[in-house]
Specification:
mainly beta; elongated
Length: about 120
């Protein structure tokens, strides 16, 4: 994971490798996830802790079931972040999920998530 900040902006680049099992599959599958995330702290005079947030995450099947190899999904999010404490924040916004697995589909979602940074 790479992260950095410059003034009111901050960025994060995260790479994950996950192992998944599917019913009827003889071996586990491996999937690579790459996420780029950015925040921009809003310069509001009377409110603190508010920021714009956006991320994009691509999912790529690396090993396992041949039908699940290659690019399989993309998640894109844009919204507002409110930091309630130095370690706890809430985000709300729009999440677009594109999945290429049959049948190909696009999902539009209103997302609210709570994030606790315990480390």
């Amino acid at each position: 994971m790479l992260s950095g900040a410059a003034g009111p902006t901050a960025g994060l680049l995260r790479l994950r490798l996950e192992q998944r099992t599917f019913e009827g599959a003889p071996t586990p599958s491996l999937r690579l996830r790459l996420m780029a995330r950015g925040t921009y702290t809003l310069p509001l005079a009377h409110s603190t802790g508010w920021a714009l947030v956006a991320f994009d995450e691509a999912f790529v099947g690396m090993a396992g079931d041949p039908a699940r190899l290659g690019f399989d999904q993309n998640r894109a999010f844009v919204g507002l972040l409110h930091r309630l404490t130095p370690w706890f924040s809430v985000e709300a916004g729009y999440l677009n999920v594109y999945s290429r697995l049959a049948p190909e589909k696009v999902t539009h979602t209103a997302l609210v998530q709570a994030i606790a940074n315990l480390l």
